[in-house]
Design goal:
The chain has 11 helices and 3 strands. The chain has about 280 residues and is mostly helical. The chain has one domain: P1 Nuclease (Orthogonal Bundle). It has a 3-stranded mixed sheet. It is globular, with a radius of gyration of 18 Å. It starts with a helix and ends with a helix.
Length: about 280
């Protein structure tokens, strides 16, 4: 996702990223730095700055509840709020909240997070972290059991496309090369009109995908629940998820991979539009 964004930066935006992250102002150096920046909030900040753990998601309920969901939209420590905040601080050249470059690193990472639909929805399951899953792999075998969230974060993608992020980015861009200029213009126009509303619409888009395509495809079917805090050990998750494993069959995995590809591409293009709008 970050490498896709790097390929769509204006010269001024690339120079700005190079300045913030302290790297050479070349396409390759900036692409590598943005890819590293995308990993930093998970690889470093989660342990070093534990207050940031809650920044990675906004747990809107699969079953809507305007009062409960409205509180989340107003919460200053969701992925939505933090993207809006860091866009503003970077644009104003304000001091980074945690350390040099951290605001941009989180902006890069969180834009990716909100395009993974399970970062924007919960079925009283911590965004799929309390749902056991197996899926049919590329070879036809059954995967090792893991969580639904992890399956969407990396399981299906790595099984189908591997782990080389540069190669995956190149493949995704080549597949939709003719559409890239229009996608970038749409994102840039949204940022110019209202950055906060643009980010909110991206979150809502992802949430709808989680509700109508991810949770709806679980086998066996699950009920829809309103948002509710759930502990990391899942002891207070919705009872339906306890001690069970769901399966994603081949047609569902194929459809999911198409969604994953689309979300990664859109995340990269929209991130580029945000970074371009910072200068």
């Amino acid at each position: 996702m970050a490498r896709i964004a790097a390929s769509q930066l204006t010269p001024a935006a690339r120079a700005n990223v190079a300045r913030i992250l302290g790297v050479q102002n070349t396409p390759a150096a900036v692409a590598n730095a943005l890819a590293d920046a995308a990993e930093w909030p998970d690889a470093v900040a989660r342990a070093k700055y534990t207050q940031t753990v809650v920044w990675h998601f906004i747990d809107l309920g699969v079953k809507p509840n305007a009062a409960k969901d409205g509180l989340l939209w107003a919460n200053p420590d969701t992925a939505f709020a933090r993207i809006v905040k860091f866009f503003g601080t970077i644009k104003a050249r304000a001091r980074d909240e945690l350390e040099r470059g951290s605001d941009l690193k989180f902006l890069v990472h969180l834009v990716g997070d909100i395009h993974q639909p399970l970062h924007d929805a919960t079925d009283q399951d911590r965004g799929g972290n309390c749902v056991g899953i197996v899926f049919v792999t590329r070879t036809g075998a059954t995967s090792q059991p893991t969580e639904l969230h992890a399956t969407w974060d990396r399981g299906i993608l790595e099984d189908r496309l591997g782990t080389n992020n540069a190669a995956i980015a190149q493949q995704l861009m080549q597949a939709r090369a003719a559409q890239l200029p229009a996608l970038l213009k749409t994102a840039a126009d949204a940022m110019k009109a209202n950055p906060t509303q643009a980010v909110r619409s991206w979150v809502s888009e992802s949430h709808a995908i989680a509700v109508t395509q991810i949770y709806a495809a679980l086998d066996p079917a699950v009920p829809s629940f309103e948002t509710r805090p759930v502990s990391g050990d899942c002891h207070d998750a919705a009872p339906v998820f306890k001690g069970k494993t769901w399966k994603l069959k081949t047609p569902v995995v194929a459809a999911d991979l198409g969604i994953i590809d689309d979300r990664l591409l859109l995340a990269g293009i929209r991130l580029a539009a945000m970074i371009n709008a910072l200068v």
